[in-house]
Amino acid sequence: FKPDQEEAVATRYFNNEGNDDWGGTEGKNPDHFWDPITVMGDHEELKSCTKAVVTLFADITLEDTTILVDKQHDVTITSEGDTAHAIKCTLDGTIEAGDNGAHNPGMDAISIVSDGNKLTLDNVKVAISGPAAATAAGEGTTNATQGIYNDGTLTLQNGAEVTVNGVSQNGVNGSGTLAVQGAGTKLSVESVGGSGVKGGDVTVSDGASVSVTDAAYHGITATKDGGVTITGNSSVSVSGSTANEGVALQSAGKLTITNSALTLTDTQEEAPAGTDTQTSGYDVAVASAGAAISGATVTGDLRVVTGDATVDGSTVTGDVTNAGTGAVSVTGETTV
């Protein structure tokens, strides 16, 4: 599609045998990029197109192949009909990194390279798996693998389900915007060697769910002013492991939870050595710019670094404290 136009410029068909990652006529030199998106600029008639809709008619499998979104493209991957088709992404850790550890194609299952690039996963299932995190972190047994890198905008909607399991680095990484929205829409990260979910702004809304289990570092991190927002009967859960070195949830911006649930479970007996127990542990949410909790259920401790903390009509199983000069306000039928 061209900008601001609804009529498709061209329709192309791919199969899952020879041209998901085409390597020439003999298939010897694959570039480890998923072709249905990367060929958008290959032909003159497509060079002015910025939007693509990839429709799956069947389940497919990708091995050491990156779904790349770049060049200011807006890409939607969806399924034909009501049944969600699946993309199985396997990262074997066989691809070496570039200079200074830069990720080469095939090391990330999905890569949204910069601001202005967008990927929407709509009514699809994406299952990303890598070598077991413990093995990948060993004595050079495998090269690095990562689930999703997002410096643009990643949206999960309409019942999309994304799972990341066993990669050696982060489940979802980057400084972009992450939105998980709609009933039945799920993002699950398990047994990764880095953080579970990291983004600039993270929003979970309208009945969606996000879960992180056994991430070696932080569970969920938002690094920009938008912070973490959980609304509309949504649920977020983070469960740590005995090897965990981070905190369950960190929000650089305001932490907002409205009519939803946040469940933080710590399996450690105490915070890791050398860390501040006030802001460490997998049953702790750290809000750096205030928190607003309304009609919510929170299991775990809430630490506010700056700004005010307001809790209204909610149940908090844990402590609510303010490390700065802001106030802590508890109103309505609230249990803390």
Can you characterise this structure?
With 336 residues, the protein is mostly beta strands. The protein is built from 2 helices and 31 strands. The strands form 4 sheets. It has an 11-stranded parallel β-sheet with strand order 1-4-7-10-13-16-19-22-25-28-31, with no helix packed on it. It starts with 34 loop residues before the first helix and ends in a 5-residue tail after the last strand. Residues 136-140 and 274-278 have low confidence and may be disordered.
Give me the secondary-structure topology.
Elements: H1 35-38, E1 51-56, E2 60-63, E3 67-69, E4 74-79, E5 85-90, E6 108-112, E7 118-122, E8 124-129, H2 133-136, E9 146-150, E10 153-157, E11 161-165, E12 172-173, E13 177-181, E14 186-192, E15 197-199, E16 201-205, E17 209-215, E18 220-222, E19 228-231, E20 235-239, E21 247-251, E22 255-258, E23 261-265, E24 281-287, E25 291-294, E26 297-299, E27 301-304, E28 309-312, E29 315-317, E30 320-322, E31 328-331
Parallel strand pairs: 1-4, 2-5, 3-6, 4-7, 5-8, 6-9, 7-10, 8-11, 9-12, 10-13, 11-14, 13-16, 14-17, 15-18, 16-19, 17-20, 18-21, 19-22, 20-23, 21-24, 22-25, 23-26, 24-27, 25-28, 26-29, 27-30, 28-31
